[in-house]
Amino acid sequence: QVQLVESGGGLVQAGGSLRLSCAASGRSFSDYAMGWFRQAPGKERDFVAAISKSGGNTNLADSVKGRFTISRDIAKNAVYLQMNSLKPEDTAVYYCAGRGSAFVNTYYVGASEYEYWGQGTQVTVSS
Fold first, then answer.
1. Which among 21, 43, 81, 122 has most CB atoms closer than 10 A?
2. CA dihedral of 65, 25, 52, 93, whole degrees rounded to 10
3. Spatial distance between the Cα atoms of 36 and 50, rounded to a whole number of angstroms
4. Where in the chain does DSSP place strands (E)?
5. Over the stretch 67-103, which tens digit does the pLDDT of each residue have?
């Protein structure tokens, strides 16, 4: 089992940048594929980014491609979401998610595919 804690959210002006971090504790973080999701008020939780347990494969939602980057540092038990050129529509609570994976280069894009979730961190982008 793994526990996830997000940090790095906040208020930023449009065009600005934020870097979200997800600290994982527990066993075998290197065996977990990880992802980021977001949920705006009154909306469903949407996929943002995913990374395989090796870190070698990543996937981004079309709405954030070219602006966001996902990465992981296995030695630090952490996953990051670098967010550049932020837009007001990026405003949401951002959640880190993890799941065990038998496959080195597989990522997962469905929220239902993840076992573990953080508590979320608020990102607000002002226009």
1. 81
2. -30
3. 6
4. 2-7, 10-13, 18-26, 32-39, 45-51, 58-60, 68-73, 78-83, 92-100, 116-117, 121-126
5. 999 999 999 999 999 999 999 999 999 999 999 999 9
Per-residue pLDDT reduced to its tens digit, 38-52: 999 999 999 999 999
Q: What is the pLDDT of residue 28?
A: 82
**How far does Cα 97 stand from its chain's mean position?**
7
Give the whole-angstrom CA distance, residue 108 versus residue 122: 23
Provide the token pair at 126. 């002002």
Whether 27 has a pLDDT exceeding 80, the answer reads no
Strands 45-51 and 32-39: antiparallel
For tokens 């799941």, the residue is 99
- What pLDDT, on the 0 to 100 scale, is given for residue 93? 98
Position 46, amino acid: D
